[in-house]
Specification:
By secondary structure, this protein is mainly α. The chain has a domain of 75 residues. It has three helices and no strands. Helix 2 packs antiparallel against helix 3.
């Protein structure tokens, strides 16, 4: 094999990979646009039904959300070390995530009943920087104490 054929293969593979990744990203954007455009074309009855489902969830989950806040306050007050504080925050995050998952499921059941597309999961782009799912290192906080080099 000559050097030029090797480079041609290299560029062909690179271009094919780039094209495939572009198409995959593009299809995700199209799906997001479908959900947004659907929002603009909802009938009044659909809008009212979705409002009612959201309102019902807010009212029914209020005691759970209040209990989460009280537990968080109690946990932070009782934390006597950085590890205890981090554990407390992690449990709180997991509990909030579970509650929001329940909300998404309830709203999606209503959307399916109305013949609408379910709400998509939040993409990585919308997650907070430094979250557990992210591979980026977390920044320093005042709780961690001064930076040591």
């Amino acid at each position: 094999m000559t050097a030029s054929t090797g480079w041609q293969r290299f560029w062909l593979i690179s271009c094919a990979a780039l094209t495939a990744s572009s198409l995959q990203a593009w299809s995700g954007q199209v799906e997001a646009r479908d959900v947004r455009s659907e929002r603009l074309t909802l009938t009044q009855a659909q809008k009212q039904a979705l409002f009612q489902a959201r309102r019902d969830w807010e009212l029914s989950s209020y005691p759970q959300r209040l209990a989460l806040l009280k537990n968080q306050q109690r946990c932070v007050k009782d934390a006597s070390s950085l590890e205890a504080y981090r554990s407390c925050k992690h449990r709180q995050h997991q509990a909030r995530k579970a509650l929001l998952k329940q909300r998404r499921e309830q709203i999606n059941r209503e959307r399916e009943r109305l013949g609408l597309v379910p709400m998509p999961e939040r993409s990585v782009r919308h997650r907070r920087r430094g979250s557990v799912e992210s591979n980026q290192p977390k920044g320093r906080s005042w709780w961690n104490g001064p930076a040591t080099n």
